[in-house]
UniProtKB/TrEMBL annotation:
Pfam families linked: ELFV_dehydrog, ELFV_dehydrog_N
Protein name: Glu/Leu/Phe/Val dehydrogenase
Transferase is among the record's keywords: no
Alphabetical UniProt keywords: NAD, Oxidoreductase
Species of provenance: Blastococcus deserti
Gene Ontology molecular function: oxidoreductase activity
Keyword field contains Oxidoreductase: yes
């Protein structure tokens, strides 16, 4: 993706030789408010790959924040490097100063390779670091409400398809039982679903089955997608819904926590052609960003959870719009997000007295 033709408002390259910081901050849109999105710390093979990821992820955040009803635009940052060996206090604080220099146009939070404790360090240099630990007045682990939101989206899919907002008696296949996946499994078990899982980390599966002995496990994703189930929940890496997976799925619903699940835009149409209801990932996994956003107002878990419960109603609206317009839910969700960015975003042109 070319930077100048990507439609982004601003892309900032950050470098500090002393600490080893090499980062890119991409601001896609501030139509609805400051751009909120996490910081990904990842060993990208090339700078071009890092730029492409920042552009793609920041655009997705604009749509996620819009559809979640937040007064926020979309942004994302990537730090190039191995977080296990290159993450230092100096590097994180240098990065924080670059965030601060943007004057609040970009609000950062956790993502792959960064954690609450890292944002505590970044926050020593900027007012615009969110998703901090509870000890610093932050919202803590945002995977809690991410999983809750995915569960609400799944309940909405059940309501739309089967006439009742429950997974009771249904089989749900969960690919990836890390933070989000493991919380999701808890909701599903409590709701009466039969759950089958897989993860590349065998220890994660063992921990999960210790907590929920009734959960079944299979060795890999290829086996999982061919195991009989009603709902498929991708909760690991992006691009999970490629042509082969879409053709193999026995599920009637796809609803998971992973970002960028569609390997290509056409995958949404293939799912629709097969009669599989797709719950757009950026819609159902918005619980985490809702949790982080609430930190700006003095964090209240109960208030954030109440907001995340709204994912159920938005998902129903998307599913109905898709049926009425004869398009995939992915297209319907994009249209709703874009309409809010236009209609609410234009209000900034109405000048207010100072």
């Amino acid at each position: 993706m070319d930077v100048l033709s990507s439609g982004h408002e601003q892309v900032v390259f950050c470098s500090d030789a002393e600490s080893g910081l090499r980062a890119i901050i991409a601001i896609h849109s501030t139509a609805l408010g400051p751009a909120l999105g996490g910081t990904r710390f990842y060993p990208y093979p090339t700078e071009d790959a890092a730029v492409a990821d920042a552009l793609r992820l920041s655009r997705a955040m604009s749509y996620k924040n819009s559809l979640a009803g937040l007064d926020l635009g979309g942004g994302k940052a990537v730090i190039i490097g191995d977080p296990h060996t290159q993450k230092t206090e100096a590097l994180l604080r240098a990065y924080g100063r670059f965030v601060e220099a943007l004057g609040g146009r970009y609000l950062t939070a956790c993502d792959v390779g960064t954690y609450n404790a890292d944002l505590d360090v970044v926050g020593r240099e900027t007012r615009y670091a969110h998703g901090r630990s509870e000890a610093y007045g932050g919202c803590g682990d945002s995977s809690v409400l991410t999983a809750y939101g995915v569960f609400q989206g799944m309940r909405a899919a059940a309501q739309h398809l089967w006439g009742a907002p429950t997974l009771d008696g249904r089989t749900v296949a969960v690919a990836g039982v890390g933070k989000v996946g493991s919380w999701l499994v808890g909701h599903l078990v409590d709701d009466g679903a039969d759950v089958v899982v897989t993860d590349v980390d065998g220890a994660a599966v063992e921990r999960l089955q210790t907590r929920y002995p009734q959960v079944k496990a299979v060795p890999d994703t290829a086996t999982l997608v061919r195991t009989p189930h009603d709902v498929y929940a991708p909760c690991a890496l992006g691009g999970a819904l490629d042509d082969e997976t879409v053709e193999a799925l026995p599920a009637q619903v796809v609803c998971g926590g992973a970002n960028n699940q569609l390997a290509t835009p056409e995958a949404a149409d293939r799912l629709r052609a097969r009669g599989i209801l797709y719950a757009p990932d950026y819609l159902v996994n918005a619980g985490g960003v809702i949790q982080v956003e609430d930190e700006r107002h003095g964090f209240s878990f109960a208030r954030a959870q109440s907001k995340a419960s709204g994912i159920f109603d938005v998902a129903l609206r998307v599913f109905r719009a898709a049926d009425e317009e004869g398009v995939s839910p992915a297209v319907a969700a994009d249209r709703l997000a874009e309409e809010r960015m236009r209609s609410v975003g234009r209000l900034a042109t109405i000048r207010l007295p100072r």
